[in-house]
Design goal:
Radius of gyration: 12 Å
Strand order of the largest sheet: 1-2-4-3
Shape: globular
Number of helices: 2
Order of helices and strands: EHEHEE
Structural class: alpha+beta
Distance between the termini: 30 Å
Number of strands: 4
Length: 83
């Protein structure tokens, strides 16, 4: 079990509506950045949310790059800018 101080480096978007998923991704990316994490995993499956992930991350200020996980197209790996 995680304590409040633990940083979650993975978010699962299954079961969320598009608007909820977008808000969860932005909150997740903010958390990664403000806790100094260099990367994280976004689990989204292969549906509509998967199609939107790149739009959400493309211009987000703290994101250096992102890519689909090589062996799992239902996961996006996000890499943060390192200060």
């Amino acid at each position: 079990m995680n304590s409040l101080e633990d940083v979650i480096v993975e978010v699962d978007l299954h079961g969320l509506r598009i608007e909820e998923a977008e808000a969860a991704v932005m909150k997740f990316v903010d958390q990664l950045y403000f806790h100094g994490e260099t990367s994280g995993r976004i689990i989204h499956g292969r549906g509509m949310i998967a199609e939107k992930i790149s739009d959400w991350l493309r211009n987000y200020p703290y994101v250096d790059r992102f890519e689909r996980a090589p062996l799992n197209p239902g996961v996006t790996l996000v890499f943060m800018e390192v200060a």
